[in-house]
Structure formats: C-alpha cells, structure tokens
Amino acid sequence: MTLAGRTALVTGGRGGIGRAICARLLREGATVYAADLSEGGSLGDEGADSAEFVRFDVTREEDAKSVMALVAQARGRLDILVNAAGIEIEKTIEDTTLEEWNRSFAVNVTGTFLTSKHALPLLRAAARQTGGASIVNFGSYDGFIADPGLAAYCATKGAVHALTRAMACDHGPEGIRVNAVCPGYIDTPMLQSFFGGEGSGGGGKSIDDLQQAVRDVHPLRRYGTPEDIANLVNWLSSDEARYASGQLWVLDGGLSAQVQQMRL
C-alpha cells in the first residue's frame, strides 16, 4: 500500500492527530503539506517531521486560495486532502456564547467547506491523472451520540457527517472519494484538556482517575492513539480503499457499540 508520487495536504497538520497522519503518509512515500496556524501547533514544538509546513487559518477563504495556489505551483495536483483541523468547547448551549458557537462552526465546519472547495480543481487534476483522489474529513463519535458539556462540538461534528455524504454524492462521478473518520477518545492535547475541564464530569477526581475510568469504559480497555487514526486515514487515502466513499468510519475502541447502562 504505497502512496509514492502522491501529494497530500493535512489541515491541523501540526496537532496531535495531524502530525501522526503526516508522518504515516510520509512513510508511505507521499509528498505532504502540514497546514496549521503555527509550526509548533498544539504540541508546541517544531520540526517534528519532514512534511512541508504551510501557515493556514482554515476559517479564512484567502488562506484557502493561497495554500491551494502554492500546491498547484509546486505539484500541479492534490491527491489527498485531510481536513483534520478542529477545536472543542466544553460547555452546554446555555453557557456557550454566540461568539464561541460561531467560532466552533467556523473552524470545524466552514474550515472543511472552504478547504475542500478550493482544493477541488487540484483533486480533479489528480483524479484525471491517476484515476482517483481522496478527501478525508474529521467527524467524531460525538456526531452520533453525545458527551455532556460538548454541545457546540457535537453539533459541528453532526454537520461534518452530513457534509461528507453530500460531497461524496456530488464529486464521486469525478473520481473523488469522500469519507469521514470519527474518532472516540484519542490521546491528544485536546483529550488532556477535556480531562482537566468541567465537561469531563470529574467531580474533583484526579486526572489519573479520570483517565483510568475512560479506559475501563471501553471494551478494549484503552483509548486510542494518534497513530491508530493515522492508520485508517492512510488506508482511506490509498488505492486499497478505491470503493470506499460517503462513509463515516467510527474508530472508538468499541465504545459506542455497547449499551452503557447494561455494562457490568
């Protein structure tokens, strides 16, 4: 399963999951652009891999246009787009301000829309040359069921799920596959922030206690790693997934497969 000769762009490419995706696509031979607000990203360090960093605010249409122009000039096409940029606000709707609500949708939904919109000419070029191109959006298991205190986040992920299906229908005839990865609990800075926030339902428990409680509620008795997500993104980006499109791929260690009140 090689991606040699392919070009990929990963938004949120300097975050926890984004970096793992960039690293995996690089190992498979792709040329990778890591698009993010800063080179350090959410992990706070720089130069972690050989992906080419491009500064990109996914909420700005001007940035989307300029980034795609850069890729067009350097590579002429884009084979793989991964819309991994995202934010999470830990509040109920009553406590969420309109500014926070709009910001959540701007990054998680509008960012996916703008990036994909302006990538389409390059994705079409790749599809004409190689027979196909791939978009991987980022939903969440929270787009199907809800954690408490994550109202805006859940709403944005439900929107990404619907958008993914619509994009798959619209652009499948052009040879562009569109899928969404829907992670559960993944060991990232966002998850660690959740453990420390009110939305975790911690009730004064230590972070270690909360982490263990989260592990115990999963059938696999662990939460995921960024590399687990990168493995699925890699497959969806490859020719092995050439018949996979319009799907929401839940990767949550079996968490959403069980009826919680029946668990002993």
Automatic annotation (TrEMBL):
Residues covered by the Ketoreductase domain: 6-184
One Pfam family, short name = adh_short_C2
Q: Which domain of life is it from?
A: Bacteria
Q: Which SUPFAM superfamilies match?
A: NAD(P)-binding Rossmann-fold domains
Name the SMART domains for this protein. Answer: PKS_KR
GO MF terms on file?
A: oxidoreductase activity
Print the keywords alphabetically: NAD, Oxidoreductase
Q: Which CDD domains match?
A: SDR_c (cd05233)
Q: Which family does it belong to?
A: Belongs to the short-chain dehydrogenases/reductases (SDR) family.
> Could you identify this protein by its name?
SDR family oxidoreductase
